[in-house]
Design goal:
Elements (H helix, E strand, L loop, with lengths): L17 H6 L8 E9 L2 E6 L2 E7 L1 H6 L12 E6 L5 E7 L5 E5 L6 E6 L3 E7 L6 H14 L2 E7 L8 H10 L5 E3 L8 H5 L7 E6 L5 H9 L23 E4 L5 E4 L12 H7 L1 H7 L16 H8 L4 H21 L1 H26 L1
Parallel strand pairs: 3-5, 8-9, 8-11, 9-10, 11-13
Antiparallel strand pairs: 1-2, 1-4, 2-3, 4-5, 6-7, 12-13
Helix pairs in contact: 3-7, 7-8, 10-11
The structure holds guanosine-5'-triphosphate, magnesium ion (MG) and zinc ion.
Length: about 350
Amino acid sequence: MVTRTALGRDLAELGWDERFAAEAEGAPGDAFPARVVAEQRGAYRIAGAGGELWASPAGRVRRAATGATELPAVGDWVLARARPEGDRATILRVLPRRSAFARRAAGRDTAQVVAANVDLVLIVTSLNRELNVRRLERYLTLAWNSGAAPAIVLSKADLCADPAPAVEEVARVARGVPLHVTSVRDGRGLDALRAHIAPGRTLVLLGSSGVGKSTLVNVIAGSAVQEVGDTLADDRGRHTTTTRQMIFVPGGGMIIDTPGMREVGLVGDEDALARAFDDVADVAARCRFSDCRHAGEPGCAVADSLATGALPAERWESYVKLRQELALQAERDDPLLARAAKARTRSVHRGQKDLYRQRRR
Ligand SMILES: Nc1nc2c(ncn2[C@@H]2O[C@H](COP(=O)(O)OP(=O)(O)OP(=O)(O)O)[C@@H](O)[C@H]2O)c(=O)[nH]1
Ligand SMILES: [Mg+2]
Ligand SMILES: [Zn+2]
């Protein structure tokens, strides 16, 4: 396997390590590892030891993918082979991901990987628009589900007279998650953000359109690599960035800039939810019955905490809503679960029919 050429970008700089190398073992001799740095309508820009080139997945890779999440995504490590033409490559295999931020795309039922093999998920929300903690809870659930650590950026602090109340509100729904208040106008919080960047490390910036993701990328990269929205369009969601793209920070480190998200559809499991709602999980753990459904059982700590206000009602309702959404999705995604659910309904119907029959007799 080719791991370095004369043109070479050090693979370790791109995030390659022994674990990926072990996954790549047994690859054909002419295959080389590369990282997906951009995606445009099914074509992938990959960066490897020999530089960058465009690549497309082998037919076999496309056919084997049972869903969109199995196709390459920005941040993925792939094994590729140069085509005879030389300037293009074929993706032979996507190496197992260490982390993946996925969500359900707008208007679609299927999950989509937004960024793969990231170390830190930076959720950006601006301080001059109405802060939406419910939306933030969704992002945090997805972030915990990704396998990467989350951090929150409250941007445009210069447009907010007093960020303190917002910071407090956010801290309540994001216990223990690093929180950065930033402004590119007065430079606030930027050094703390830069501290997350290191050679071989990958960050992804996520959030609504217009919150200043690309602006932060430019400031951190030290040059205008990404186009940003004009000031008039400020916060109106112009969707300036249209593709996901990995940017190399001079001195080492990578940032994936993403288009503003319209919808943050949930993907994940109970574990991710329990981490995003660790306060709720803590309370529920104190219920008398370990299988408490928090629906009027005696000794229910949730009911007690709601009564005293220790657990805010909105927080609990949000948790219940997201849990239902996840359960519904899990049923949709898992044919076995779906069949079980259908069988359940059928047996209920059958039971009802039997009941009617008995009554008629
Ligand atoms: N006042 C102020 N404006 C900012 C700040 N950061 C970004 N902006 C402005 O916000 C607008 C949108 O910034 P972008 O960086 O394009 O936002 P984005 O999140 O990348 O948006 P999409 O690419 O559409 O998802 C631009 O006019 C920026 O100049 C900030 O810290 N303070
Ligand atoms: Mg942008
Ligand atoms: Zn309970």
